[in-house]
Design the sequence.
């Protein structure tokens, strides 16, 4: 029996059930083990104040290392770039929707005028920074909780809109009609991808997960996470990256913003897939050399006050 650990939110359960179904189709006996993470318990404190790196994955990592579960299923964007010793990302599934969505209340007039005033909700530092760069007069509000709770909170508050990952809404079939894709917003590294982790020494489970691994998704998310790792960032830093493969080439874009969005660094790459390794690292070095290192230091100083 393969025991899959998962957060108990509707989205996390959907992702875990996807892995369960794939393993079952391959002849494995599987059961789900719901585990509540620290990030699910504290829904009030802004993520950047509670040290978000690993906040949604740490509890499952501990359960894996303790032998209470055999597999942990995560949204890949929540997984730190440095795994705990003894764990391995055994399968990165084929990527789903990547972009961010704006869920509004029927009017988007505020999008047509950069000087307009509007109230926008999101807990993401990355989304806040990119939004403020485009709409500096808007007020940003903290929004925590699972997808359903955030939708309910948006409905009850005097806000104009909130920002969500398309994958989160579409996977559990709750994307509102009053939503639109933010095609200009660069997503978080590995957004839209699902990863199954296990103990490094559990060869039987690693072999069971191997057929679920999607090579193109792994190549792209590896470079996105390499970009993040080189910039020494996490979810508390406004770092964005997205890569995709087309006709044998990988297209990469990455950005770093100041917290208020007034400064932004953007880099793009186009390389053969065979030469893709290290693209994210090199792109990050370019941003650091252009002044990105000073912005990252400012962000750290601000968050330590």
Sequence:
């Amino acid at each position: 029996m393969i025991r899959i650990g998962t957060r108990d939110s509707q989205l996390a359960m959907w992702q875990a059930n996807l892995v369960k179904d794939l393993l079952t189709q391959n002849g494995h006996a599987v059961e789900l083990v719901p585990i509540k993470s620290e990030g699910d318990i504290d829904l009030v404190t802004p993520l950047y104040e509670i040290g978000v790196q690993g906040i949604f994955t740490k509890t499952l990592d501990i359960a894996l290392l303790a032998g209470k579960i055999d597999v942990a299923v995560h949204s890949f964007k929540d997984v730190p770039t440095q795994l705990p010793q003894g764990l391995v990302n055994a399968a990165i599934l084929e990527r789903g929707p990547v972009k961010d969505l704006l869920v509004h209340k029927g009017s988007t007039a505020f999008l047509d005028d950069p000087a307009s005033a509007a109230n926008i909700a999101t807990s993401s530092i990355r989304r806040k920074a990119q939004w403020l760069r485009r709409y500096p007069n808007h007020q940003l509000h903290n929004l925590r909780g699972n997808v359903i709770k955030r939708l309910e909170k948006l409905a009850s508050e005097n806000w104009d809109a909130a920002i969500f990952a398309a994958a989160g809404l579409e996977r559990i079939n709750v994307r509102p009609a009053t939503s639109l894709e933010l095609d200009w917003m660069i997503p978080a590294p590995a957004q839209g991808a699902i990863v199954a982790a296990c103990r490094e020494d559990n060869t039987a489970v690693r072999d069971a997960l191997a057929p679920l691994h999607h090579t193109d998704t792994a190549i792209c998310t590896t470079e996105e996470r390499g970009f993040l790792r080189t910039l020494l960032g996490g979810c508390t830093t406004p770092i964005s990256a997205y890569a995709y493969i087309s006709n044998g080439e990988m297209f990469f874009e990455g950005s770093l913003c100041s917290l208020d969005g007034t400064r932004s660094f953007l880099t793009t790459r186009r390389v053969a897939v065979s030469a893709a390794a290290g693209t994210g690292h090199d792109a990050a070095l370019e941003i650091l050399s252009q002044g990105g290192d000073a912005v990252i230091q400012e962000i750290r100083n601000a968050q330590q006050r």
Observations:
- The longest strand covers residues 249-257.
- The chain has three domains: 2-95+193-213, 100-181, 228-304.
- DSSP finds nine helices and 13 strands in the chain.
- Residues 2-95+193-213 form a domain with the D-Maltodextrin-Binding Protein; domain 2 fold (CATH 3.40.190.10).
